[in-house]
């Protein structure tokens, strides 16, 4: 079954702990943590401190999505008992190979390394490092905001990645982020996605349980 990673960017920040507790109980597989710096993307969200304050509350691991410039400077601050993936943007890393190795060295080697691609970045730019990553995150909106419209070309990128994974006999996971809903989830799953991120579709829904079920 496809895994679901609700993005807390669309949660009610005034009661974030309760929001995380509820979403875990409703079947989240991960908590998607969207970190934005106001430079790489035109928005500022929150940092590692907010995430850490949820450690006792979340019953599922964190899937950390860093939309920040120069991520190496801050990587270690995102390591907690709950951190499973730390994902950086290909477009934000001049020395991507080094950054991937850096992530994999964290937490005594238990942290998994992800790389994300913006909608305009082709999959083949990952060809030299694809055998080193644990996860590829395909952005299906331009990063920076929740609630944007899904870009359908992302489905082709998922299909291409899935083909590469099979051809090279690799094990990385494919995650998709942005505008995911009950209508496009099955297309992404058929194309080869393993984890779907959803923010507004879940948190802004009147029936969150149903929203999660319709994606799964
Ligand atoms: C966008 C973020 C996404 C976003 C998803 O920059 O990386 O994770 O919160 O939100 P929705 O599902 O509303 O597009
Ligand atoms: Zn995200």
Describe it.
By secondary structure, the protein is an alpha/beta fold. The protein has a single domain, classed as Aldolase class I (TIM Barrel, Alpha-Beta Barrel). The protein has helices at 16-25, 48-52, 96-105, 154-167, 185-191, 200-203, 208-215, and strands at 3-6, 31-36, 62-67, 83-89, 112-117, 135-139, 173-177, 195-198. The protein has an eight-stranded parallel beta sheet with strand order 1-8-7-6-5-4-3-2. Helix 4 (154-167) links the parallel strand 6 and strand 7 (173-177). Helix 4 packs parallel to helix 5. It is globular, with a radius of gyration of 16 Å. The structure holds D-xylitol-5-phosphate (DX5) and zinc ion. Zinc ion (ZN) binds at residues 7, 32, 34, 65, 177, 197. The site of D-xylitol-5-phosphate has 22 residues, from strand 2, strand 8 and helix 6.
Counted up, domains total 1
What binds here, in terms of ligands, is: D-xylitol-5-phosphate, zinc ion
CATH class: Alpha Beta
Identify the CATH homologous superfamily: Aldolase class I
User: What fold name stands as the CATH topology?
Assistant: TIM Barrel
> What is the spatial order of strands in the main beta sheet?
1-8-7-6-5-4-3-2
Q: What is the percentage of strand-forming residues?
A: 15-25%
> What summary fits the major beta sheet?
8 strands, parallel
List low-pLDDT spans. none
Put simply, the count of helices is 7
Summarize the helix and strand pattern as letters: EHEHEEHEEHEHEHH
Structural class: alpha/beta
Shape estimate: globular
Fraction of residues in helices?
Answer: 25-40%
**Total number of strands:** 8
- Return the average pLDDT rounded to an integer: 98
Q: What is the gyration radius calculated from CA atoms? A: 16 Å
CATH architecture: Alpha-Beta Barrel
CA distance, first residue to last residue? 7 Å
């Amino acid at each position: 079954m496809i895994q679901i990673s609700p993005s807390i960017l669309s949660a009610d920040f005034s009661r974030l702990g309760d929001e995380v507790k509820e979403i875990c109980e409703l079947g989240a597989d991960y908590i998607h943590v969207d970190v934005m710096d106001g430079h790489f993307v035109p928005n500022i969200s929150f940092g590692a401190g907010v995430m850490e304050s949820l450690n006792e509350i979340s019953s599922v691991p964190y899937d950390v999505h860093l939309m920040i410039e120069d991520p190496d400077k801050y990587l270690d601050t995102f390591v907690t008992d709950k951190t499973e993936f730390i994902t950086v943007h290909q477009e934000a890393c001049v020395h991507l190979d080094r950054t991937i190795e850096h992530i994999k060295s964290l937490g005594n080697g238990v942290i998994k390394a992800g790389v994300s691609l913006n909608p305009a970045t082709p999959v083949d730019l990952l060809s030299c490092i694809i055998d080193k990553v644990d996860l590829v995150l395909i952005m299906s909106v331009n990063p920076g905001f929740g609630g944007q419209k899904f870009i359908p070309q992302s489905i082709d990128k998922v299909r291409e990645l899935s083909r590469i994974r099979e051809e090279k006999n690799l094990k990385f996971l494919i995650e998709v982020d942005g505008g995911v809903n009950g209508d496009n989830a099955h297309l992404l799953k058929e194309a080869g996605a393993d984890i779907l991120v959803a923010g507004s579709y879940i948190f802004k829904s009147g029936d969150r349980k149903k929203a999660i079920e319709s994606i799964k």
